[in-house]
Specification:
It contains 15 helices and 14 strands. The longest helix is centred in the last third of the chain and has 23 residues. The chain is an alpha/beta fold and about 400 residues long.
Length: about 400
């Protein structure tokens, strides 16, 4: 047997991606980190670039907890005690005390009865959504939902799928009215924070709309929200889009790998729902959990978030996010207003987006350019991401570099 016949097809596809300007190419490899020095935050070294030290404006570690001494100490101590891996799936002696303790803390943090860990937020969505979809279910999805939601819907095989215009409650209302009596159940699935733009789902309005129509469906309407970019980085106390909008999801999915700075994903809901998922979700049953050390590190990160230090970090994050948006607008760049640390810079052209990414890289700034098909045509952008690790001088340098490009 041979792959030779397929390799030519794969080569042609890679060439096509290159010509379209959307091939990701070789990954940049971080080889080390330079700690914050004076008025400037941490810098990172890349393989092949010698002693050039880069300002990282594309990290999901919004609170800087991946390098927090308390979090590092907790993971190191747990690795010494429990080893480097769980050694099995959860139901075959792969459940450790740190897993149980973290699940309890996450449930309490979100005001839910129960929580359940997965190896990542992506696998959480893939493992959770299909378990709520029957042959008589309508799935309703926001047009800008994350790829994990799109693929989870494909895996679910619902009776009907409808996609509403991004954040358009009137469009959602029309869909829910149209399908009354045609299906028994509706599952409304949305991101909390939309990862490409940093805007949010108005969960209060979504809930009000769903409640208005719920009596029209024998098995009701379920709301499922993925707030991976919101939890720990948004809301007065870091409880995400639910806190900010005062709207609660029936089922909430989030990650430990962004604001909490560790690894893994989780779902919180009522105890019956979580018990059901433990018995039915293949991504949980047949896959190893995060390590005990990661669970204890995440628990330590959660302790930081819920402390006075956490409130201070969140306030800094909001202040820097607003400041960067204001600075961009003063320079004539298009962005979206808001408080979330994802700050989009809309370029709306693939070549121009790539050119600005290259300019920033030449000045030792790492950013992420988002081109079609990751974002729709005409919405090409650079996604800047604020971290509590950043300093005022870091933002000054970024904005000065962008100003030079404008000239």
């Amino acid at each position: 047997m041979s792959l030779k016949k397929l390799e030519q097809l794969f080569t042609d596809k890679l060439i096509e991606l290159q010509q379209l300007g959307i091939r990701k190419g070789n990954e940049k490899v971080i080889t080390g980190m330079k700690a914050a020095d004076g008025d400037f935050g941490a810098r990172y070294f890349l393989e092949g670039y010698g002693d050039r030290a880069f300002l990282r404006m594309n990290s999901n570690s919004y609170l800087g907890l991946s390098v927090h001494p308390q979090v590092i100490k907790a993971e190191a101590a747990a690795a010494e005690k429990f080893g480097t891996g769980p050694g099995a799936v959860r139901f075959i002696s792969g459940t450790y005390q740190p897993h149980i303790e973290l699940e309890q803390k996450l449930a309490e943090f979100h005001g839910r009865e129960s929580a359940m860990l997965f190896s990542s937020a992506y696998t959480t969505m893939m493992g959770v959504l299909p378990q709520f979809i029957s042959a008589d279910t309508l799935i309703v999805s926001d047009a800008l939902n994350h790829n994990c939601i799109i693929n989870a819907i494909r895996l679910s095989h619902p009776a009907i799928k409808e996609v509403y215009v991004h954040a358009d409650i009137d469009a959602l209302d029309r869909i829910l009215e149209e399908y009354k009596g045609r299906v028994k159940r509706v599952c409304l699935v949305t991101d909390g924070i939309f990862s490409m733009r940093g805007d949010y789902a108005h969960l209060d309005k979504v809930n009000a709309c769903c409640q208005q129509h719920e009596d029209g469906y024998d098995e009701g309407i379920i709301t499922l929200v993925d707030d991976s970019h919101g939890v720990g980085a948004f809301g007065q106390t870091g409880r995400g889009t639910e806190e900010y909008t005062q709207g609660k999801a029936d089922i909430l999915i989030a990650t430990l790998g962004k604001a909490f700075g560790v690894n893994g994903g989780y779902v919180v809901a009522g105890s019956v729902v979580i018990d059901y998922l433990r018995e039915t979700s293949p991504f949980y049953i047949y896959s190893n959990p995060i390590t005990p050390a990661e669970a204890l590190a995440a628990s330590a990160a959660l302790d930081v978030v819920t402390s006075h230090e956490g409130l201070r970090l969140l306030e800094k994050l909001r202040r820097f996010s607003v400041r960067l948006r204001s600075g961009l607008e003063e320079l004539g760049f298009e962005t979206l207003q808001g408080e979330h640390p994802i700050v989009p810079v809309f370029i709306r052209d693939t070549e121009k987006t790539s050119a600005l990414v290259a300019h920033l890289f030449a000045q030792n700034i790492l950013v992420t350019g988002l081109n079609y098909p990751v974002v729709p045509q005409g919405e090409q952008e650079i996604r800047l991401q604020i971290s509590a690790e950043h300093t005022d001088k870091d933002l000054d340098y970024l904005l000065a570099t962008l100003a030079d490009y404008k000239q």
